[in-house]
Amino acid sequence: MRTRTGRLPRPGTGAAGRWGGALAAAVLLLAAAAAPVAAEGSRTEFTIADPRITESSGLAASLRHPGVYWTHNDSDDGPYVYAVDSTGRTVATVTLRGVKPRDAEAISLGPDGSLYLADIGDNLDGSWSEVWLYRFAEPADLHDQTVDATRYRVRYEDGPRNAEALMIHPVTGRAYIASKNERTGGLYQGPETLTASGVNTFHRIADVPWITDGAFSPDGTRLVLRGYFLAESYRWKDGAPQRIGALDVPFQRQGESVTFAPDGRSLLYGSEGRNSTVVRVPLSGDRLPDSAAAQTSATPTPSAPGGGPASGTPAAAPATPAGKAGSSRGTGILVAVGVVALLALVFRRRRSS
After folding, report:
1. 279, containing H or E segment
2. Which keywords appear in this protein's UniProt record, sorted alphabetically (predicted)?
């Protein structure tokens, strides 16, 4: 989340701008002062080594190319999408022909194998009358290439706003955008089918937290939304989110992206910055997508004589109740609470001035 000059948004340009600016400042201060907090069971999956990728703002796991992830820079780059493998090496650079992104913030994979690049950022508090989505086929071969993309014009039913999250449902193909103008963001639903010949109006269907990215599970039964320090899990039912509860999220330099692993059993969190790391965090209990949970329950557990677990086989952990974190986050929770308190204080003072 940066301006076209590469600087963090300037505070003091309207209530939403003050909120976003205060958050950006808090992020930098806490990142400098606090040690990283690891989510339970997490591990660094890879480090993005490409010196061109300094503001990785979106992440999408390829289904066509196992172990490959698509990413892109935030702004001040160009019409480029990068394929990065599980070692952090860039294996392909895709250039979108004739496209001049203004503030690309997210990338998502559709059920037909198309990638969607979301040029939806608006750090000037909703100054753009419309934003754009660019759709192109995921390349069959991984090498540097230039491709044609279909452009979709997007407007929100209640006026312009800033956003950083695009989620394409993996079953229906419907597009969803989560905004971040307000203290409480909004989840917006696009038309059943996007049109390239006119304007696509997105309608608000739910309130969601202030977030930087989101992703559907591969089977479409779970939605995850992340911010800098917090992440939420939702059950997706009848075209709407039902909140399950908080998720473990790693403490990162500037947490900007999230995607499900292809098997749905873990999340991968990304960050902006040079040599940024992508961290894998396993899922369990209600946070597991339905298909992954069904596979888990169908897997027989080795039994010892008498019916108990075999020696050396750990007993299954109980499912986490909805609405509660999957595990203790210790310092991570304290950091998050501190951020919320600081933002609330700044916002109240700005509102009263």
Report:
1. strand 277-282
2. Membrane, Transmembrane, Transmembrane helix
